[in-house]
Amino acid sequence: QVQLVESGGGLVQAGGSLRLSCAASGRTFGSYAMGWFRQAPGKEREFVARISWSGGSTYYADSVKGRFTISRDNAKNTVYLQMNSLKPGDTAVYYCAADVNINGQVGYWGQGTQVTVSS
Prior knowledge:
mainly beta, 7-stranded mixed beta sheet, 11 strands, 51% strand, globular
């Protein structure tokens, strides 16, 4: 069982940056691929980024490639999402996910954190 708690969301102007953090409980954190997803109002939840258990492999949605960076610190049981050059279209609730396979299926979800980008 893994419990995930996100933090770092908030309101930022277009072009600004935010860093989301996701703290995980459980001794198996280091064995899971982790990811971030987001859901904008009236839209389905979508994949944002994924990182392998070791951190050696990352994958991004085309919409965020080059602007967002996912990373992890297994010693701290934490995964991060650095978001730069934010756009109003990035406004959404961002969810941390654990045990994310290459097809985007998720074993565990966090509760989400709101990110709002103003124009």
